[in-house]
Amino acid sequence: MTSAVTQYRAQADEAQTDRTMLGRLRPRRNPWRHPWFLEGFTWLYLIWSLVPVALAILFSFNNGKSQSVWQGFSWRWYFQDPVNSVLHNPDLHAAVVQTLRLSLYVTLITVPLGVAFALGIHRWRGSVALSANFVMILSFVIPELIFGVALFFVFTKLFTGVGLGSLAEVLALVTWNVSWPALIVQARLTTIGRQYEEAAADLGATPGQVIYRVMIRMLTPAIFASVILVFSGVIDDFVLVDLLSSNSSNTPMSVYIYSQQRGGNGGPALNALGTIMLVMSFVAVIIGYLGYRWLTRGERGSRIDALTTIAGEG
Amino acid sequence: MTEPSRGLRQHRLFWVALAAPGIIWLALLFIVPFYAILAIAGGQLDLFGNPVAVWNPLHWSSANFTAAWRDVTGASAFVGPIILRTLVYVALASLISLLIAYPAAYFVARFAGRRKALFLILLIAPFWISYMMRMLAWIDLLQTDGYVNKALTGMHLISQPVDWLGGLGFTVVLGLVYGYIPYLIIVLYAGLDRIDPALIEAGRDLGLGRVRTFVRVTLPLSRQAILTGMLITVLPMLGDYFTNQLLSGTTGTTMFGNVIDDQLTSSGGVLEGQGAVFSLLFLLVLIAPMIYYVVATNRSSRSAT
């Protein structure tokens, strides 16, 4: 026992001398130098993550059927080809319309539902409220496949009036996305604190007036950020709509790309469809970023906060 | 109006009414669906072999459970190797993701300086590019006459073009990494960015080198972000059934999600009961990490108060 301790001490002393000797032999490098290796690594990562997508966009303008041999620029797969372009192929066309419709409907339902939920839960604070909040966060992290299977059964066996199709897709996507506004608004409510609404209430405002005159205005940036997250989240969603769509009239873009590519019918028209999805998301995000910056003007915080908030972290 | 905020307390019903639509919605479309899985899993087969939901727990049968058990252990068992493969793929993919995402997130959070906004935009751009578009991008690159083969033959690293999309597990694992890394990187960035730089400076001032400051200060402080980030990528990866279909499409790379998906969509309804059993099994295995995530989220939102 004692010998072990002495031995350990001896080792520690040795290590200490080693370290001081090393320190004396080698001049210490500047600890605040720029980490060029890390920066290089980060650039490599960024190239790896973005260049393939850039090439896929490029090939959506390919004047030929190949997805790997460049045959010149054309709008063929967007609108020039009379049969297989996004504009003229009814299935491709329907997929774009369905994605837009879903994004619009789901955003319109989800955001008010989630905001009201967050406001109510935040002030109610009963055990029911706590468990409801638990379930809401659970819906944020549950694997989408399990949730999709559960809804598939509910819509085909229990609420058979719903069945598969657009209505099932909207109901599913609202449930799946409602945690975005709920979580973001709750976080914002915590940051704001209670003093403003208490002041308003002391001045005689009813809860309705507190919500309408004070809270909604202070929550506008958070609500705005959730609109963007839900809208672009629905565009990108795949698993739920794949399980709940039933025919080509209610198949959105992501499912269309998957089923065609998997069925061996890939081609630049799919790249064109993917590019349209990407443009839709980016337009939403750019509007979101500029709008968020405008709404939070005069507040402390920066471009970087705006970016992380509309990415769902902030 | 004598007591401050008495009005708010009186109107407790108002807050309940405000939360009610969301609660009812979640109850009907989140809780009830899980009961539906149970009802199908415990249900019976009709004369044609189609599953019938049984809503009363007292009448549940074990037919689907024994059928599913036979898939795992019986003479015609096929699920065991698939589960093993899923675990290996997901373990590899999440480990590779962490090894790539952490340094990049660390650099942007700590060293990007004035170019932080630029780096951040590039870092989170894939988050808004649809998963399918990003898979299409790799399908283009990995074609037999695609750019990956061209580059590799051009550098004389391979003599024959490789059939990357012909059923290679390697391609599927890299596909998973590429598909899910944006979600991980955002969580890691947010976690690393929240670390007070003063703590790191203190480490330096007390004589730690760059590497040891990282190991002793930064890494322990980012443990929470690593855990939640891994959860948020591993959970969906385990249920992934489309990445392997797009990048290989052969039975040699089938994952657990494909079993459930096939039983639901390609069996004409006959195997739906077993699909329900497998979904339940999947849920049971994942319930612990999910609850951990919920508790961690709750704790961090409360500590912000």
Please state roughly what percent of the residues of chain A sit in beta strands, choosing from under 5%, 5-15%, 15-25%, 25-35%, 35-45% or over 45%: under 5%
What general form of chain B does the structure show? globular
**Largest beta sheet of chain A, briefly?**
none
What's the CATH class of the largest domain in chain B, please? Answer: Mainly Alpha
What's the CATH class label of the largest domain in chain A? Answer: Mainly Alpha
- Summed up, the helix count of chain A is 14
Helicity level of chain B, as a percent range?
A: over 70%
Tell me the CATH topology of the largest domain in chain B: MetI-like fold
The termini of chain A sit apart by 52 Å
Q: What is the rounded Rg of chain A?
A: 27 Å
Rounded average pLDDT of chain A:
85
Provide a descriptive summary of the structure in words.
In chain A, helix 4 packs parallel to helix 8, helix 5 (127-141) packs across helix 8 (179-192) and helix 10 runs antiparallel to helix 13 (268-295). With 314 residues, chain A is mainly α. Chain A folds into two domains: 33-74, no CATH class; 92-310, MetI-like (MetI-like fold, Orthogonal Bundle), CATH 1.10.3720. The model of chain A has no long low-confidence stretch (mean pLDDT 85). Chain A has helices at 2-25, 36-59, 76-80, 90-124, 127-141, 144-158, 166-177, 179-192, 195-202, 207-236, 239-244, 253-262, 268-295, 303-310. Chain B is mostly helical. Chain B has two domains: 1-77 and 272-305, no CATH class; 79-266, MetI-like (MetI-like fold). Chain B has helices at residues 6-10, 12-41, 63-73, 79-110, 116-124, 131-142, 147-154, 169-194, 197-205, 210-221, 223-238, 243-247, 256-265, 272-303; strands spanning 44-45, 51-52. The mean pLDDT of chain B is 85.
